[in-house]
Specification:
The chain is an alpha+beta fold. It contains 12 helices and 26 strands. It is 36% helix and 23% strand.
């Protein structure tokens, strides 16, 4: 199995990737900071409610006028005057009230106070609402009545027809009743409550109560207004209807409360202008503030929850030119990237309490028990988180109401996002610069190591010869130490290789003299009379001397050829003619072998020493004959391939062992049988052939034939065309 390894640059990149832990740590840190900011926002908001509540403590008049004395509030009876934001045009069309449609109340059979005929085919009902704007109390009635009956134009009484009674307590607490009765659709003023059987000419008009009565397909609309300074804290309405124009008797009364008894009259809560002024002064806190009475009804409200993000100071906006590279990088690349994992604060969430007149949550009920409270809640669309805080308003030892402040976490989320973006920008810059520096550092180290590798590869050839001196580095670091160590090693290796190269010639030189002495001694000994046994040993010794002499000759041959190559004189000659001549000579000399030559027809010019090429060819033919079967021809081919001449010598015979092709070209390597005693083989033949080939800038290779019938040697020599 191949061992997998990483390069230095890859390791540095992996190491640099651990820098990505920094953004994660920064991200977690900012999230923890957001938790602390939320806790701080919660405490700040509680402080805001405490400050507003302090301004309202021990001021009972602010609450007495708001019907806070009630033990409980009855729906439909105790009315709430909503704050009207849009302009109201009193024309009986009711189009101006559409924005407040959801706050209107429906009065049907359950609010019937009197009904003459329970089986009547004309069930009376109406939709009603009151609101305040610019010092006036506005209201409307949308009445469903199949048989509306107007007052006769010359009638002496105003209660023998459909009419509306408005009962209220004036600022001094006195019950006042007003009747609205018209003889046709149009403008009207109310009449003060008449005495029984009073003539219309004796009635007193209340011009401050104005309105418009408009007949519709389903009945009629009544739209009116009256000044708030006429109104105390109680208000009720009663609609009297007459179905028979002839009898003109009231047969149906639907009322919000009993309009004849001040004690049973319903209350009306008009958001306090004075409380609103106090609350409005706290609007700089950028919170939405409610003042709620002990019946959970809203007395005053200030602020907008969409702007109440909890950030007191205006958001800081960095001034970055749109033409700058940083702006384009941030806008085109970083912003979309941050949007993938940063939740942007929404400003289009659903505010379910925006127009509430009563807060009925458990959080409000708990706060009315006299303890400061805080609560977190999601909006109905789950887009925004809202923080609410409440503090009780005390009058004596009683809780008269609470102050509720609300903020979203949009400000904190915005600050968190900005902090994260700045943090990521800085960390991203650090990571990019750090990675680049590490990459440059790694590249420098890798380049120096690669240079050492190239120097090591080029310093020594396949036979261990020193091809070029190893230049040591002057750097004082570890790589410099390694370079100097390799240089010293190469120098020692060169010295040792030089010793090995000269060893054969020295041995040959030193051994020839004792070999000559032994030979001459044997020759002299053979001249003396010997018996048959002695002569046999003398003959065996002479054969050993001959064999030893042959070994010494082979040992010095490679050295002599290498030295001769350096001082050879090259000449131009046709390579194909040289090969052809050699083959003819081999055929005559070794008649027991057959030689087949396939050569190129055109002349292949070659610049070399012919004797060395002949020696190269001799070594190849000698090797082929030694392993070839005599009945099979030795095949020689010479052809041109590009700018090279390809010389192939192939024979049929035993195959090479696996992975031995390149090894046979080295010195002192042989694959001959160990029992071959007739010849001496030191494995120098193909080594000499390789030496001659490489001297002529050629290449030599040996391998088994494709059909596995034998071995072939391929020599590629460059052709000189000049």
């Amino acid at each position: 199995m191949k061992k997998f390894s990483l390069g230095l640059r890859s390791k540095v990149i992996i190491l640099a990737s651990f820098l990505l832990i920094l953004p994660w740590l920064g991200y977690e840190y900012v999230w923890e900071m957001e938790k602390f900011l939320r806790q701080g926002q919660e405490q700040t908001l509680i402080g805001t409610t405490r400050a507003v509540a302090t301004a309202l403590h021990e001021r009972p008049k602010l609450f007495n006028s708001q019907a806070s004395f009630l033990q409980q509030v009855e729906a439909g009876k105790d009315l709430y005057a909503y704050t009207i934001k849009q302009a109201i045009q009193i024309d009986g069309l009711l189009d101006d009230w559409k924005a407040n449609k959801s706050q209107s109340l429906f009065y049907g059979s359950e609010y019937v106070r009197f009904q003459a005929d329970k089986n009547s085919d004309n069930p009376i009902s109406f939709t009603h609402m009151v609101g305040k704007k610019d010092g006036y109390l506005y209201g409307y009635f949308q009445v469903n009545d199949k048989y509306p009956v107007f007052r006769q134009k010359n009638a002496r009484q105003i209660d023998k027809n459909d009419h509306l009674i408005i009962a209220l307590s004036d600022p001094s607490g006195v019950l006042q009743r007003y009747i609205i009765s018209v003889h046709k659709s149009g403008w009207f003023n109310a009449f003060l409550q008449p005495k029984p059987d009073s003539d219309i000419s004796q009635l007193q008009r209340e011009k401050r109560i104005q309105g418009y009565w408009k007949e519709t397909e389903t009945g009629y609309n009544i739209e009116f207004r009256l000044p708030l300074d006429m109104l105390g804290n109680k208000l009720g309405f009663a609609l009297h209807t007459v179905s028979d124009k002839n009898k003109r008797r009231v047969n149906n009364i639907i009322a919000t409360s009993n309009t004849r008894d001040l004690q049973q009259l319903g209350t009306v809560l008009v958001p306090s202008p004075e409380i609103e002024r106090i609350v409005k002064g706290m609007s700089h806190t950028r919170s939405r503030i409610w003042v709620v009475d002990r019946h959970q009804r809203v007395l005053a409200k200030a602020g907008d929850i969409r702007k109440a993000d909890g950030v007191w100071a205006p958001d800081y906006q960095e001034q970055v030119s749109e033409d700058s590279i940083w702006y384009k990088l941030q806008d085109k690349l970083l912003a979309p990237l941050y949007d993938l994992f940063l939740s942007r604060p929404p400003h289009d969430f659903i505010d379910d309490l925006s127009d509430s007149t009563q807060l009925n949550s458990k959080f409000i009920k708990d706060a009315l028990n006299g303890k400061s409270q805080s609560s977190w809640r999601l909006t109905d669309d789950n887009k925004a988180m809202i923080l609410s805080a409440a503090h009780p308003i005390m009058v004596g030892d009683k809780v008269m109401g609470i102050v509720v402040a609300e903020e979203t976490t949009n400000g904190i989320r915005t600050l968190r996002n900005k902090a994260l973006e700045k943090l990521f920008n800085v960390l991203l810059s650090i990571i990019v610069v750090g990675t680049l520096l590490l990459f440059v550092f790694a590249s420098n180290i890798a380049s120096r190591i690669r240079k050492l590798r190239d120097q090591a590869d080029n310093a020594i050839d396949d036979q261990g010869r020193i091809l070029a001196p190893f230049a040591p580095s002057k750097s004082g670091d570890e790589i410099g130490d390694l370079s100097r160590g390799l240089s010293d090693m190469v120098n020692r290796l060169g010295q040792y290789h030089h010793y090995l190269e000269n060893l054969s010639s020295r041995l040959s030189h030193e051994l020839r003299t004792p070999v000559a002495v032994v030979r001459s001694s044997l020759e002299n000994l053979s001249l003396l009379p010997q018996n048959e046994d002695n002569q046999k040993y003398i003959n065996r010794a002479e054969k050993g001397i001959i064999r030893l002499n042959r070994i010494l000759t082979s040992m010095s041959e490679a050295t002599r050829i290498e030295q001769s190559l350096q001082s050879s004189d090259k000449e131009f000659f046709p390579l194909n003619e040289l090969v052809e001549g050699c083959i003819q000579g081999y055929q005559m000399t070794y008649s027991q072998y057959r030689f087949e030559l396939h050569k190129a027809d055109k002349i292949l010019p070659f610049h070399a020493e012919p004797d060395f090429i002949v020696q190269l060819f001799d070594k190849l033919i000698s090797n082929a004959m030694e392993f070839s079967e005599q009945e099979n021809a030795i095949q020689i081919s010479l052809r041109q391939q590009g700018d090279n001449a390809l010389l192939t010598v192939a024979n049929i015979g035993p195959l090479l062992p696996e992975n031995m092709g390149d090894e046979l070209l080295n010195s002192m390597v042989s694959v001959r049988a160990k029992n071959s005693k007739d010849k001496t083989h030191l494995g120098l033949g193909l080594f000499i052939a390789k030496m001659i080939t490489e001297f002529h800038q050629g290449k030599i290779s040996i391998h088994n034939r494709e059909d596995n019938s034998g071995v072939e040697v391929l020599v590629s020599l460059p052709i000189n065309k000049s």
